[in-house]
Amino acid sequence: MSHEDLKSSAHVWGGDGNEGDNSQQRQSLSDAPTQQEATPSDAPPAYSSSSHGTSTGASTNPNASTGIATTTSTSPSRSHPPTNPLAQLASLASLPFHQYQVPASALNPDRTTLTTTHAPFLTNPDSLTNLILQQSALPPKPSLRISGTHKTSSGETTTDFDLTLSLLPLLDVTEPSSSRLRLHPPPQTSGGGGGGSGGSKLFSKSSSSFSSRERSPLDIWARHFCVTDKSEHRSLRLHRRIEGVSAAAALLEGHVRTLLAALKYRGKLDVAFPVEYEDVVVHKRPGNWLVGLLRIYPEKRFEVGEVVWGFGGSASGGGDDGSVLVGLWWREWEGVVRNAVLARVKGRVGVEDWVCWRMGAREAERRVEWGVDWAGDTF
User: Fold this and answer.
1) What tens digit of pLDDT does each residue of 177-203 get?
2) Number of independent structural domains in the chain
3) I need a surface site. Which of 58, 68, 135, 146 has the fewest CB within 10 A?
4) Which residues contact 53 (CB under 8 A, 6 or more apart)?
5) Which residues lie within the region annotated Disordered (predicted)?
């Protein structure tokens, strides 16, 4: 962490941000090196040893041969984005959210797939190419859902709490979309102008890097779907994938269950990680409604590729799957989740709840176990 970052961090959390001048410490080699203490933040009991295994301090060691002090940093080269929710919201301001609204489109009931039947996307290769490039710049919307239920004395199931927190700010939105888009090889065409190489190798080259004479794989895909293929019933799908989501989900679920056990909750606890806007589908239905109803023509499905999103601060080959950032995020939101659970909230938990927590709002803890089936609905 740089000198300016330390000053900025101290200012955010109420510190004065003043430090000694390091240049004065290096004027004389006879001065003893200043010892720098690292004070780790509090972590949940079950994860205090796994969230931070690397010291972020810097040690100053004299060089025996030259007598010049050298500084060896033990911190990783990657920097994680801020976990302050207000700063995270500011980092999302650059996303073109209005482009989620695609013409002639609808979301399925679980909000995972956006399907459009807009005519230009079915007949105009340029329109389809622009749609895929636009949607490649938009991330999926991951969430953390925590719900608790128990059975009453009459045998009915009642919901104690049902919380949903957005995990969208954890995604890295700084990487250019062209590096995220990984196209599958285009279908082979009899004209010889389309096919890509076989196998499972993906294209990650941006269409803008190809000359006008050489069509990009995305252009070939668009032309094949809109012009070459004559199937009466066909669809093309673009998939958004979050890299490292399984490890992050397991870590967060462990934190949640540890917290709920400490709150003496004994009901049925469900922890889920729904992801909205995972898929964008361009769908051409049969022109005759009766043909579509009877399903005379089977749907021909094309998988154009996927857009890979990662957690902020993670890097390929760096050994970081986003678990450090997830741990830092949980430290910010653990108290908010605690308040919401004890208040039996049913709905979304957001920045306003975090602000109330930071201002000192605290829900009283239960003195006895609650949520057990035999306790009825009296708590």
Assistant:
1) 778 999 999 987 654 333 333 333 344
2) 1
3) 68
4) none
5) 1-86, 139-158, 176-212
